Structure formats: C-alpha cells, structure tokens
Model the fold of this input.
Amino acid sequence: MNGIDVLGPQISVLVAAGVVLVVDALFPGQRRLLPFLALAGLLTAALWTTSWVGRGDYQTVFDGTIVLDRYAVFFQYVFAGVTATVILASIDWVNREGRRQSEYYALVLTVCAGLMLLAGARDLITIFIALELSSIPQYILAGWGKDAKSSEAGLKYLLLGAVASSLLLYGMALLYGVTGTTILPDIAAAIEANGESYRALLIVAMTLLIAGFGFKMAVVPFQMWVPDVYQGAPTPVAAFLSVGSKAAAFAVAIRVFFEALGADFLSSDWSMIFAVIAAVSMTLGNLMAIVQSDIKRMLGYSSIAQAGNFLVGLAAISVAGEEFTLGASGILLFVAAYAFTNLGAFVAVIAISQRINSDRIADYAGMWKTSPFLALGLAFCLVSLTGIPPTVGFWAKLYIFNAAVRADLVWLVIVGVLNSVVSAYYYLGVVRVMFLGEPGTEQRFRASPSIAVALTATAAGVLVFGIVPAPLMSAARDAVEIFAR
Amino acid sequence: MTPGIEHFLTVGALLFCLGLAISLSKRNAIGVLMGVELMLNAVNLTLITFSRFAVSPNPIAGHTFVVFILTVAAAEAAVALALAVAVYRNRETIDVDRLNLLRS
Done:
C-alpha cells in the first residue's frame, strides 16, 4: 500500500490520460472538456504531493528503487506546473489542428508521468524505464504536426535519442558490472569499498552516462538535434521539450552523480568534464543563436546556452562540507527559474506565431502596437533569460555563479558572464524589433483566454520570484540536503 | 578452453562499437535503427555476462534489466517505423541525408 501511496501522483496523471481517451471515445461532442480533465489530473498529482509535505514522511519503497524525498517533491511540482502550462498553451493549437485531440493530451500526460517517476527513481533500471516512458511519447509528439517538417523532426529526434539511450545503457551495464548492483546508494558503497582498482572502467561508464544525459540536457556535443527539432515540432511540443525533458535530465543526473558517483576520486573527474561542457555549450549556443532568423531556432540555440549555465552547478562541487551541494541547489533554482521564463517566452511565441503564421523574427516587428500584452510578456521573459533584474533569471545566474566562485572556478564564471553579454544581444534584439519596428498591419489582436492565463502565470512567477527569491532558494537548498556529506 | 568473462565482454564491446559505427554512418533511417538494435543487444550481452560471472550481491538485477531493455526496444522500434512511414508519405525518402527541410 505504501508503494501505491508514493506513486500516487504518477498514477493519477496516468489515470487522467486514460480518462481523457475514454471520455473522447464515449462523448465525442465534449471535446472542450478534454484539457480540463487533463489539468484536473495534474492538480490531483500536485495535491497528492502536497499531502506528503504535510505528513513529512519521506521514505524509500519497492526495495529502494523509488525514493520519496524533498528532492523528488521539488521536481514533481516543477513537472506538474510545466505540464499544466503546456496544456493551457496547447488548447488553441489543438483545437485548430482538429484531429486526434484526446491522444495529444494523453501523450502529454504520459510524458509527465515519466518525468515524475524520474524525479524519484533511485535505481538504474527504474531510471531507464522512466526516461523512456517520457522520451517515446515525446518522439511521437515531435512528429505530431501534419507537415513534412514535423515528421522529419520526430524521426531525427527518435534516431538520435535511440543512439543516446544506447550509450547510456552501456554506461549503466558497466556500472552494474563494476558494482554488482543497480541501486544508487549501494553503487556508492561498492565504489567506496573497492572502486579505486576499477577506476578506468568507472571513468568509461561515467563518460557514457554523461553522453546519454547530455543528449537530454541538450549540451554540446550532443546538441545537434535541438534546433531542428524545436523548429520542426509543433510549438507547444517544443516548449515542453525545452523545459520538461531538460529539467528531468538534470534531475536524474544530479541524483546519479551525487548519490552513486560521489566518491572523491570520481567527482573531481566529472566536475572537470562538466565545467568544460558548460563553457563550450554556453559559447557555442550563444554564438549560433545570434545568426538565427527563426525565433524557434533561436530559442533552441539559447536553450543549449542555458543548459551550459545549469551545468556550472554540476561543475562547482569541489568544496567540501556544508557547501558541497551549493552547486546542485543552484541547478534546482535555475531549473525553476528557467521553467517560468522559457515557458513564458514560448507561450507568447505560440500565440504570436498562430496569429501571424510565421516564426521569422523580422515578422515580429511592431508587435507592441498590434498586441501589447503578448509583446510585453515575451519581452519580460527574454529579459529574464538574459539575467537582468528584477527577474528570477538574474537570481538564478547570480546564485549559480556564486557557487562556481566558491569552488574556485573563476574562469568558468568569466566565460559565463561574457556569454550573458553576448546573449543580451540577441534576446534584446527581439525586444527591439517588437517595440521599435513598424508593424506590417495595423490590425490589433488579443490573446485567447487560455494563452492569457498561461502567460500571466509564468510572467507573474518570473516577477514575484525576481523580487522575493528567498522562498525558491530555500526550497532548492532543502531539496538537495540529502546529497550533503 | 571454456570461454570466460573477458571473451563475452570483448564480444559485447565489439558488437557495441559496430552498432555505433553503423548507426552513425548509415544514411537510411532503417539502417540507423538496425545499428541501434545491435548496440542494445550488445548491452544485453554485457549485462547477462556480468550477472553470470561477476560476484554480485544481486545477480537477478542484470537479467531483469535485459527484459526491460528488450521490451522498451520493441516499443521504440514501433514508434520509429511509424515515424519513418510518416516521413516517407511526405517526402518519398527516408534517407537521413536528404531530410533537410529544417535549417535556418
């Protein structure tokens, strides 16, 4: 019974997916209800998660393969919120597309269940299953559109994703071979006992794991799918990929590297690898983003650069004691900040591109005059992505760079700050086009209610946590306490 | 001479490298998928070898892992073929070099 209780949120999300399918099959006239049924499932999951916080009873179930701790709770809130925003932002697009509506929502909910399972997975097999449970529906969703571009994006995403998960699996197989177990804390204990003698093998396994997770995080050199898939996939799906699967990859990577591979002789190696990947991702992502003329491609490259910022937190672990987890808490803060900010930007892009039927940045000219609400929301989110106060993006960058300075990674901070300056050029370039450009048409338009709700909620999150970041910071710090040593 | 753990692991590693080479060099999407399948089966062989030969407190975990990998690989292949059909309907090719609609 305990296990069922711990998996409650995932089960309620999956039940909602089933209900959506059945309701659509039985009452085809009631399509308008579907997104609200999906949202109800997510709300149930969030309430279930909240009930544990009230009970404060954190535990491991199913022979230690699934754990319920503050870390899992933190990410379950993030994933429920991200999925709810994506569903709100999809309503218009799905209605316009017209076909197979219930399947779309059911797949989105399945991805969410996989992501939530990943947050609490503490065993290599469970991690693999959860990762695939969230990935396979994402491949389908990326190919959901009717046009050739969308199916091309889906196929590319799947092929590269399958190669990446094979690399990940080989890494897991080697890790199992060295340690004889798949449970993360047991792996750590086995490495502590006699890991030094297998150091070379462990480093090979670690590199393969980094390749597998790096694909999902979308960091260089595993980033080649990102711009293509973001451009080709339906925009709500691209929004989901950019936040959901990236956050999940970092969630599981932090758990694996801190809980299983945290031994001193390994952590010095992986923190160095992550530092190099972080610097390269930031630089390459930003430089490529500058030259893009398609806003979805630009957001794709910018998400690569942002993933580089996240990785600074995984690189910054060389301090011992209390501050060992400072970098990890920085990633959690950054994940939450990025979820609000990037989703807000994507919601505005979804609404605008449906209206003007174009993703070209040049066509955003004069958006301030034709749709002030969307232009202001998008501009505000882009400012937060740059990292300018008073937005939550500023605090996330400050926090994570502070962690890097404490860990003596001053060079990485310099690279990061220089990159923020570069990123300001293209983020604020879009703002300039929207506010100073001349609109092609004088016809004003308004956002639909669901888009308005989604954009207001995300922008409010960016602003509120930009002014009072303390609650978010302490939540992030509490969540990673379990990794302290 | 009976084959030992090192022989099985070597075969596994070779198969994995072959699969990786195939999936990175093939231009036909189905060819890439075949490379992936080879990699997954190399992983399965490695897992089985470790749970058979290595001193492990939990040998059954390796077997379990293999069963899950087989299942997931089947699901993934189904989706991959569906997407390949969708692409073929639109473009009349599944040659990954010619899938170049997406660019800046």
About this structure: Chain B has a mean pLDDT of 88. The two ends of chain B are 59 Å apart (CA to CA). Residues 44 and 66 of chain B are 5 Å apart (CA to CA).
